[in-house]
Design a protein that fits this description.
The chain is of the alpha/beta class. The protein has helices spanning 6-15, 33-39, 50-62, 77-81, 121-137, 150-158, 160-169, 171-194, 214-231, 248-251, 267-274, 286-291, 295-307, 325-339, and strands at residues 69-71, 85-87, 96-99, 143-148, 199-203, 235-240, 258-261, 279-284, 312-315. The protein contains 14 helices and 9 strands. The radius of gyration is 19 Å and the shape is globular. The relative contact order is 0.14. Residues 6-338 form the Uroporphyrinogen decarboxylase (URO-D) domain.
């Protein structure tokens, strides 16, 4: 096969088409302190300035070796836009929610999607960063943009305690909230694709079986995923932290091209569940391995992923800010060594 561009390889891998080798990408956050030092784009500024966000994202490709670029680096973009109070964090702490608008069930009815959703402080920054990135890398390198999903946003807007309690006592309240925020997810995702993203990653760990029962997922969340996949006009990936095994079967029929899984999911077993309905992305441990171990251990774990049939080799979740650069580069080395055998 003629050597493919990184973007062609990435898109073919997501569609289950023939490729020359497994892509090495990150569909989750890629900002690390080392990359900040080497690019001059530091948190928290790189979360609020489009040029700095793009510069740090480019570092993941140009320096660390990922075969894509990915932004943003935080999960609070839509949460702040829809009413949460956010602390901007620091050089090694991502922005985080400090207060939320839905203290009581009746507050859910006050949540709405603003007409200026794509012009908010944070959405506009990410949209501009995506456009800068596409201009910089052109059509040869995939640009991936992250969007927090309906369950994740609901847990931020209502607080995790209310989210979990209402799911049991008043599931219709959580469903109403998720239904509203899903409209924001769809509009924002389409905006990112229009500005140059080649794929969007819907980050929605709060819908996973580590947080809610699989039956709740299938009843309340799965229909929203089908709606998202129907209305978002581009390649779509779902990222779910924790052990997502119990919901892999319905996820494979949701309409996403790929699912990003943590190391808690056994790749070979997951492949037997999903077959050729969806592609698997991951799942080298970002905390136990990429952060804490050496390059040889990274290579061993990455090679196991490849042997088990992973479709896109990637960290199982977002990188910890102090992840060593050498460990990130080891992912590419593992893939190259595996493919040369």
């Amino acid at each position: 096969m003629r050597e493919l561009t990184l973007n062609t390889r990435f898109k073919r891998a997501l569609k289950g088409e023939s490729i020359d080798m497994v892509p090495v990408c990150s569909v989750t956050q890629t900002g690390t302190v080392e990359l900040m030092e080497m690019t001059g784009a530091y948190w928290p500024q790189a979360n609020y300035d489009a040029a700095k966000m793009a510069a740090l994202a480019l570092g993941g490709y140009e320096i660390a070796g990922f075969e894509n670029v990915r932004c943003p680096f935080c999960t609070t973009v839509l949460a702040e836009t829809l009413g949460c109070t956010v602390d901007e964090g620091s050089v090694d702490i991502q922005p985080y929610v400090t207060d939320f608008p839905c203290k009581k069930k009746k507050d859910v009815k006050d949540i709405s999607v603003p007409d200026s959703l794509l012009e908010s402080r944070l959405t506009s920054v990410v949209l501009d960063a995506v456009e800068i990135l596409k201009e910089r890398v052109g059509e040869d390198v995939p640009v991936v943009a992250g969007v927090v999903g309906p369950a994740g946003l609901a847990s931020m807007l209502a607080g995790m305690r209310n989210y979990l309690m209402w799911f049991v006592t008043n599931p219709e309240v959580v469903e109403e909230l998720m239904g509203t925020v899903m409209e924001a997810c769809i509009e924002y995702a389409n905006g990112l694709l229009e500005r140059g993203a080649d794929a969007v990653t819907l980050i929605d760990s709060e819908a996973g079986p580590d947080i809610i029962a699989p039956q709740m997922f299938e009843t309340s969340v799965f229909p929203l995923y089908r709606k998202f996949c129907k209305e978002v006009k581009g390649l779509k990936i779902l990222h779910m932290c924790g052990d997502a095994t119990a919901v892999l079967d319905p996820l494979a029929d949701s309409g996403f091209e790929g699912i990003s899984i943590e190391e808690k999911v056994e790749v070979s077993f997951a492949k037997r569940i999903v077959g050729d309905r969806i592609r698997l992305i991951g799942n080298v441990s970002p905390s136990d391995t990429l952060l804490m171990k050496g390059t040889e251990e990274v290579i061993i774990e990455a090679r196991a992923c490849l042997e088990d049939g992973i479709d896109i080799l990637a960290p199982g979740c977002g990188l910890a800010p102090h992840t060593p650069l050498g460990n990130i580069k080891a992912l590419l080395r593992a893939r190259d060594e595996y493919c040369s055998l």
